[in-house]
Amino acid sequence: MSPHLLNQPLRLPNGTVLRNRLVKSAMSEALGTYDNHVTPRLVTLYRRWAKSGIGLLMTGNVMIDRRALGEPGNVVIEDESDLPLLRQWAGAATEQGAAIWVQLNHPGKQSPKGLNARNISPSAVPFRADLTNFFETPHEATEAEIEDVIQRFGRSAAICKKAGFSGVQIHGAHGYLVSQFLSPHHNQRTDGWGGTPEKRRRFVLAVYAEIRRQVGPEFPVGIKLNSADFQRGGMDEAESAATIRALADAGIDLIEVSGGTYEAPAMTGVTAKKASTVEREAYFLSFAETLRSTVNVPLMVTGGFRSAAGMNAALASGALDLVGIARLLAIDPDAPARLLGGHDSPQRVQPIRTGIGLVDRAAMMEVMWYTRQLKRIGDGGEPRPGESGLWAFLASVAHSGWGSFRTRRLRA
């Protein structure tokens, strides 16, 4: 199949033009300092990706509050102290012709035990029993805390615009705070922030409105949302579609479709998939097809793509406008050049196994293992696609424990 569809530019509703349809979706890099500042590693990493010809780069998991980290080494943007390095980070992509959007996030309850002094969530719902050794039961967020988070999303977006980034993406998927507000399982409130689908989506609409107020109408703002949580009592596809329609009506520029949480990691591909889904490659393509008939906002699907032919076929279906890839770029940072030329990467994304049941069921290495590869690229080296999952797990646990200790000490 001709690679021309993947190479076509895309004009967003606000007039922004992306040079092609291939997007690096967000991965958590954890390449910040232990006191959460930008490092030159991020500049090196994103310059490498931008040189590959990719159209849009989404950064991974930039936090809006230093008190609310998802993991040690998160970059936090809550003031302008890092503005010089932020400008270098943005320029590493834009100077190569790629757009770069910052993914803004608040982890809510989804933060390792002991990292933060206080984890908040819409409701004080614990994790399932086999994950309570890793995650604490959160505190129910107060009205003041909710309003503070909303303001912080807007402030962080405004700083990103000032630094020269091309746009921002709200992380509303994978079980983080925005996703928690949308979920009937995690959000059991009965006030103005929960109790009905309309009230559960009030938070995400408020976050979007505050970002838009602070960045203006021409700066691109997108969101990553679950098609479903794949968790008993969680958000289903019907409620997700209603949320997407509400965001489209509010003027959002791009919606990325994904799915799952830490407790049900559908986005990683480690859970069983129907043969038809595997054949079509994209995990969430059917959901995108149902959305296409109801919204005109550009849609991006991430998860499962393996080949240039599969990506072009998905685009040809009309169900999506952008193809998102992530983990492949951690093991083959030059893959976009091959894909845009109609050729497949020699590397294949495979589930990372440690032999430890709990770790493998929770798909923990689908973050930890790939983060180690990103660090190598950020250091100017090459990834190690054959690295042992067990060795990477042991090294990551040691690093995370030390990182949590250093983070707490630096904030004390």
Q: Given the structure, what is the number of helices? A: 16
What fraction of residues sit in β-strands?
5-15%
Q: What is the architecture at the second tier of CATH?
A: Alpha-Beta Barrel
Which strand order spans the largest sheet, edge to edge or round the barrel?
Answer: 3-4-6-9-10-11-12-13
CATH class: Alpha Beta
Structural class: alpha/beta
Q: List the uncertain runs.
A: 263-273, 275-280
**How many domains in all?**
1
CATH topology title: TIM Barrel
Q: How far is the N terminus from the C terminus? A: 57 Å
Radius of gyration (Å): 19 Å
The total count of strands amounts to 13
Report on the structure:
This protein has 412 residues and is α/β, with parallel strands linked by helices. It has one domain: TIM Barrel (Alpha-Beta Barrel). Helices cover 39% and strands 12% of the residues. The longest helix is centred in the C-terminal third of the chain and has 23 residues, at 389-411. It starts with a helix and ends with a helix.
List the helices and strands and how they pair.
Blueprint: H1 4-7, E1 10-11, E2 17-18, E3 22-24, H2 40-50, E4 56-58, E5 62-63, H3 83-94, E6 99-105, E7 120-121, E8 139-140, H4 143-163, E9 167-172, H5 177-182, H6 197-200, H7 202-215, E10 221-226, H8 237-250, E11 254-258, H9 275-280, H10 285-292, E12 299-302, H11 308-316, E13 322-325, H12 327-331, H13 335-340, H14 357-361, H15 365-378, H16 389-411
Parallel strand pairs: 3-4, 3-13, 4-6, 5-6, 6-9, 7-8, 9-10, 10-11, 11-12, 12-13
Antiparallel strand pairs: 1-2
